[in-house]
């Protein structure tokens, strides 16, 4: 079970590692888009855009349906929750460390004179 969760998280971070895929996800947050619509801002071919969509699908971030000859994609944000949870650990880690540093820096100095 842990290994499967790790593979899913790896796929999410792999998908998010590419700026083109992140832009595609942002576009899909506004609503369904065809692969052609996702490709247009990048002036890439259908095949190139489809490869990016496949990476997003493997991560579970995108669902694709075929309507005639049109491939329509929609965002499935649920897998982002696991990435957010993973990142949240480090957010708490650094917040605690910075809070400790702040306390140390704001304590009045005790003079031994």
Structure, described:
The chain is α+β, with helices and mostly antiparallel strands and 113 residues long. The protein has a single domain, classed as Arc Repressor Mutant, subunit A (Orthogonal Bundle), CATH 1.10.10.10. The protein has 5 helices and 3 strands. The protein has helices at 2-16, 19-28, 35-39, 46-58, 78-106, and strands at 33-34, 62-67, 70-75. Strands 1-3-2 form a 3-stranded antiparallel β-sheet. Helix 1 packs antiparallel against helix 4 (46-58) and helix 2 packs across helix 4. The longest helix has 29 residues, at 78-106. The chain is elongated and about 80 Å long. The model has no long low-confidence stretch (mean pLDDT 89).
CATH architecture: Orthogonal Bundle
Write down the CATH topology: Arc Repressor Mutant, subunit A
At the first level of CATH, what is the class? Mainly Alpha
Evaluate the radius of gyration. 21 Å
């Amino acid at each position: 079970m842990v290994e499967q969760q790790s593979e899913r998280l790896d796929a999410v971070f792999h998908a998010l590692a590419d700026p083109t895929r992140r832009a595609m996800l942002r576009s899909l947050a506004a609503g369904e888009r065809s692969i052609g619509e996702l490709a247009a801002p990048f002036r890439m071919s259908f095949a190139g855009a489809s490869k990016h969509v496949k990476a997003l699908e493997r991560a579970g971030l995108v669902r694709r349906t075929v309507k005639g000859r049109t491939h329509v994609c929609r965002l499935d944000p649920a897998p982002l929750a696991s990435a957010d949870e993973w990142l949240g650990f480090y957010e708490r880690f650094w917040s605690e460390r910075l809070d400790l540093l702040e306390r140390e820096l704001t304590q009045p100095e005790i003079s031994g004179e």
